Amino acid sequence: MNTLKESPLDVATAASRHRLPAGEPWLAEVKRGQTVRIVDLDGNQAADILFYNRHDPAEHYDATGTMLAQGGIYLSTGSVLRSNAGNPLLTIVADTCGRHDTLGGACAAESNTVRYALQKKFMHSCRDNYLLAMANADVGLTKRDLGPNVNFFMNVPVTPEGGLQFADGVSGPGKYVELRAEMDVWMLVSNCPQLNNPCNAYNPTPVEFVFWDPVA
Amino acid sequence: MNDQPIVDAFPHWQRFAADLPGDRVVWSEVLPGGAHWSWRLSRGTSLRFAALDDRANCSVVLYAAHDPLERYNLPDSLKAQHTAHYTRGHTLMSDMGRSLASFTHDTLGWHDPFGGLLDSTRMAQKYGEHRYEAHRNAMYRSGRDGLLVEIGKHGLTARDLIAPVNLFSRVTVDPNGRFVFDDQRKTAGASVELRCDMDVIVAVSTAPHPLDPRPGYQPGKVGIAAWKSGAAPADDYCRGFRPECARALHNADVFALA
To answer: Which ipTM value was assigned to this complex?
Structure first.
């Protein structure tokens, strides 16, 4: 299935741009009709993102509902990201990477103790990023709202034997994915700081967000 | 006052889990297809699930009883164990890095972690409307509604509903990432057991799997028996299954001790 699609949008006409340094969080609003492009500036950088209804934090991105509605696990052009109320949050409208993950979740100090070693507990993690961004924003989002997220630019295939692989090599420098917001949403980002596996090629790097307003 | 008060607690487990030590069985139930229930269970209690018909599916969600903010985490469990299915040896991990429950027994070899829940919209599209007014307790029930009712009994809402484990169901993924539901599997007679490694709230629904393509709403019955197995011993099979399982069980052990 070829889901590669370049965007017709020109960065020169963008409404705003935001460079998110390696390992940092960001909570941003995307308004209905706006398009946001996420750019993997240096390649192989996982952008761990959750989406919420801007006007009701109880309505959150639903990974299993999204996969169930499209009948498969990979997110790419045409995928509709759905909420736990069954509503479309955003649609992927362009993708030069070809495949994004929503099974692998976000790293946490606690899961690092399980996955790697008890002594990994104090390393920086996506969960810390999420909790800090939610605390600083104070918009009604808390830990209970941290469900399975989207890992843009991550490749996590399921094998026929039912294994889960953390494969690599789909993304690269400058590749991007573009989403159109179907409602006003919060976009909660952790630019993943994981150093214990190859999800960031052992070298976390920045990502860029580019916003376009709807054509009037 | 009666000398021997009569309670109609039927020993269902003798029919579907006769190998369990009878003096340690606490209760047993037979859930009709489409039904839902929930329990608060202590660390060291095990739940034996037995499919009593074909086309059985049992969606299970788990929350820590001391604080339901700690809950089963699908991606953390899958990636820690590098698996896209569950069988004996696997543990169901919370977002806090602790094993909430472990698979201590399994006759099937594959239980689905990511198919999600049947909701009422999909149910009506697939099977048509079958409501209480016309059908009484033969009405069709969805897994999502059933679990919302059950977690609601424990103060949790739709905001807290998590991705379930679908016991008895098998979903594979083809090279393009598409789901393939195993509709050839005969579930009658199969059994699987979850040992609670923490005090937990367990909610279940026996509604059909959302990807089951077979026509007709015919979810199978599921027997469930709770018995006092004790907490995971030092030589536990799950501890030895993977180092990640050993660490998740260790984290649950020290939580229970402190």
So the answer is: 0.91
